[in-house]
Specification:
142 residues, alpha+beta, 434 Repressor (Amino-terminal Domain), two-stranded antiparallel sheet, 2 strands
Length: 142
């Protein structure tokens, strides 16, 4: 079978297992027979677009989630989970979120500045664009 049939089989099986549905339950939800669902999961059948739509609607998932490539699992990390580029006693900490890469000419850092700390910076030798977002830990009452 072709790549699309293979992806459909993998995605249907994965979505069904993630939802903890049996083939009988997906058949009831979608209106597609259990034998057809089994054939799709075994890559023994290339269903019509109409059948794929019925399955997507029955599982309440986007149509593309059945035909697209499965996304890799990602690990979500907090801004400060990595190692700081500065010492704790300097009154501020810098954490690289996206370190500089020459092919994208982009970098992004998260700064924490202690309330009593102050810093000044000289003008950089090349023009740069910066964006600063101030986040208060104490809310509106500070």
């Amino acid at each position: 079978m072709d790549e699309l049939t293979h992806r459909l089989a993998e995605n249907l099986r994965a979505l069904r297992e993630e939802s903890r549905y049996s083939l009988d339950e997906v058949a009831e939800l979608s209106g597609v027979s259990k034998s057809m669902l089994r054939q799709i999961e075994r890559e023994e059948s290339s269903p019509s677009i109409s059948t794929v739509w019925k399955i997507a609607n029955g599982l309440r998932v986007p149509f593309t989630s059945l035909l697209g490539e499965r996304a890799e699992e990602v690990e979500v990390a907090g801004f400060t989970d990595g190692e700081s580029l500065t010492d704790e006693d300097e009154g501020y900490r810098v954490f690289p979120l996206f370190p500089y890469e020459s092919d994208t000419a982009f970098e992004l850092y998260y700064f924490e500045i202690d309330t009593e700390a102050s810093r000044s910076a000289s003008t950089p030798p090349v023009p740069i664009r910066t964006r600063t977002v101030k986040k208060s830990r104490c809310g509106e009452s500070c």
